[in-house]
Amino acid sequence: MQNKTRWADLFPDEFLKKQSEQSIIYLPLGICEPHGHISTFGLDTYKADYLCDESSRRFGGIVAPTLAYQIHEAGYHAPWLSEVLGEKPTYMTGMPPHVMLHFFMYQLRTFHNAGFKTAIVISGHSGGNQNDFRLAASIFGQVSDMKIFAFSDPELVESHYEGDHAGKYEISQSLYLRPETVNLNAINRMNDADSLGRFAQGEDALEATAEMGKDIIEKSLSFIENLIAEKHENQVIARKPMTYQVVEELYAQLLIRKNEWVTLQKYDFQNETPAESQWKSFERVIL
Fold this sequence. Notes:
Rossmann fold, 8% strand
């Protein structure tokens, strides 16, 4: 295997060598969720994986195991799901925010204990979740000198493109990265009586092109390159291992600030989730 990027694929000596050359850990955050009948479920995961793997290949560093579960259903997700899915099954690897953010802090602990100087978190799932990861990271930073950056992929190109859901922005990336995961011939499948309906498909998906996808990806990588270039991370830090107790104390601080969690809120422009909807019970998470 040439130019290995993944923690899981490295022998110890390989790991230490790569880490000494560039002390950065990348964390891809994805999800499996509906993206219409035109796309496979893992679109968000493919984006995050590629951006992290390619950043490691081009700029150095190591890629942590992908987490293909993400915050969904709660807060602003509930009225959105009611609108784009209705009462259909989701086939989605969604997690409640308190579970996901708690686990995220333990992931950061792993990176801290392994001596990384910087962690770059790329989420292929966006909409507001990234703000809660940043809040958790800022609290973790009270006890760690590890720099932590967390972005959703549309934030990497926000001066050039507007993100969407299974529309021309996302489907273009799939056409470039994984064309076998796109079937634009199924664009009207949502109108068939035996289909799942719209299934969160974007209205402008037919405007997607591989050329646009390539430009989005390259601009995203340029953003990451500039972030890394500013930091010049090439130092492994020997730290005393952080205990579970420390992480639990940090998570307690995060819970105290749960009123700030974006994933527990509904956006002002959204309608209320209908009382009879299956999603209504997920709107407010009891912590």
